[in-house]
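ZP: hey, is the magnesium ion complex queued? I don't see it on the tracker
AM: it wasn't, my bad. submitting now with these inputs:
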Amino acid sequence: MKKKIVYVGLSADILHKGHINILKTASKLGKVTVGLLTDEAIASYKNIPYLNFEQRRIILQNIKFVEKVIPQKTLDYVQNLKIVKPDFVVHGDDWKKGIQKKTRARVIKALRAWSGKLIEPKYTKNISSTIIKNKILELTSTPQNRVSRLKRLMETKNIVRILESHNSLTGLIIENLKVKKKSIDLEFDGMWSSSLTDSATKGKPDNSSVDFSSRVSSLNDMMDVTTKPLVFDADNGGQLEHLPFLVRSLERSGVSAIIMEDKIGLKKNSLFKNQKNTKQDKPEIFSKKIKKICKTRRSKDFMVIARIESFIVGKGLNDALKRAETYSKAGADAILIHSKENTPNEIFSFSKKFKKSKNFIPLVSVPSTYSKVYEKDLIKNGFKLVIYANQLLRAAYPAMEFAATKILENGRSFEIENKIIPIKKIINLIQND
Ligand code: SPV
Ligand code: MG
């Protein structure tokens, strides 16, 4: 008698006894085809897997219960089911609730067309990839692993979200915050060490008066208590000859990318209205800095992102495009095209043209002034990384000023008790073991 066909959809990033249980049950029913979720399919609803598709495919292909492994390109099974037409689909009974509920209903409906059956073994308790991942994270978040994480995210996700962090506490918000929207877990992918907010936190202007040693020291505080990638704002990178030492410090701390802007002279924040005395570097000279970093970085995954200031200084599209070509050829891994307009029109006019270039590299946006732009529109226009560059400090400052004002006005602090978090909560916020 012809052996029955059994379909099992899996991510299988970290194989555990729960997976083996499912595969064993499936193999008793017939020949097992695993629909292995691609990295993109996984990233569409949760964190990217540790192992890439090919690595996961090889592992599964060598398990005795598995006959065949095929890619499953979406969380939804139906496309693959219509091709494979399995007699059975096997899945743990945990998907009756939560994000996969709809997927399950669609599987049942699709199977009806050829009288296939859904088999749901009892979910293996107290073990899941998430539990194992958290344990591994505690043991293995070495700087080397951390450096590579941003590149991997950019290769896998449709957009990588970075948020400004100016101290360890903001780093912890970025590390731990999860928001559920339409059953999808949303979270920030990493931190931005901003020259503006790092300087402002120290009560100093954003003109490089906070030097790199001080900047690296504040970022180290954040690195101590977090595991996500960090992108470092290096202004114009400083002196060419000093760059290798900065890169060494950053890599040693586990930083994933350096962003350098193509300006010279006394640093002035790009969002200042008056940019009269702001000068851009010559593209060839700035390219030397990019090349220097590429040569001295220890890990190829440590990214150099070139930030083009042509729109900021009023030089316009053609200048920006010419520079993008030059910086890409010099070895930049991505381009940040900066703008202080209140719409994304000028950066989109840039991406539209640059997308056609054979030297195209991923684009980065900092939507501080054009904050109405949605991430979905950035994605459509070829942007891979979005940096929310200053919002946490802008949120914290008025809240603190308000509390201080109310204490002065009332001659006591009682009136603000319901506007601030209880002391107990602050104490429990920080892990102490
Ligand atoms: C920063 O956050 O320090 C930046 C972005 O460099 S901007 O303030 O727009 O220049
Ligand atoms: Mg800056």
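AM: back. Residues 59 and 102 are 29 Å apart (CA to CA).
ZP: great, adding it to the tracker
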